[in-house]
Design brief:
two-stranded antiparallel ribbon; 2 strands; about 325 residues; disordered C terminus
Length: about 325
Amino acid sequence: MVIIPKNTTDQKVHVNISGVGVGSCNIKLNSSSEELGNLSSVFVRVQVVHSEALSIIIIIVGWIYFAAWSVSFYPQVILNFRRKSVVGLNFDFLGYNITGFIAYSCFNIGLYWIEPVWDEYQKLHPYGVNPVLLNDVFFSIHAVILCTITILQALIYDRGGQKVSWVCKIILILAWVFIIICLVITAASKQTVLNWLDFLYMFSYVKLAVTLIKYMPQAYMNYRRKSTDGWSIGNVLLDFTGGAFSLLQMFLLAYNNNDWASIFGDPTKFGLGVFSIAFDILFIIQHYVLYRNHDPEHRYPEINEKASLINNKTREKNGISSSMGSGEFEGIDPDN
């Protein structure tokens, strides 16, 4: 403990710190002066790590997965544009994806920019730092924009009769009803039941729930069609890269700071990372192993079925039964 006499303005205090082992400690400042007020939020954190070089590597790894995840939205948009079609891209996935990133954006923006929310966070974690950084805000908003562009493509381009399932619609409606109810409770109770920080955490719960289920419809659709045509493998590879480097950073941080609780103490974050990578591996196997060489008639069952109905109606309109072959009526072309 260092004691500074009152009315002292020019005295300097030197604190010598020796690293004994890997870990961290907080140097706090207390004062009995009413003029200075509450100094509980004033502190210096001292961190001792295994390797300074490893700390630099951890930062580089962080930027790698940030870049991979940010770029991962573009291959699907480019593929849709080139094909002028979204056949093979599951619409339930689009609904879940944009819902998750809207919720994630609300959480990030609220915790990063809204001061009353940050004040609530500091009360709960007086020696904590803001878990949301500016790049998190940028990433989530960027994701919403790219998801919106993909949905617009689904409205414009050929979709082969695809639509959002009733199961997806019900889940999304329930998610947003849940958010609205929490908003009403927070506002009506004047934060006695839920404060604004609690309300923001509801968005994070929606994001977590959506992440658990959003890949399932696409994986099942690939299985049913026996093809990944229309589902960008570039998106999958970049997402896998981002997820793998994200988990790598978590392990490197835990080792360098001797803080393994940061991984296993938050099983939700760790589990979601592993879950997403598992689906990426499944998509890679589907694309490169299971359904690598399938001809177009197996790739587009929706289009083939639609084309067959059109041909049948055309034949019926010209007085020819769809069951008749081309050789049953001499001189008549069944395609006319």
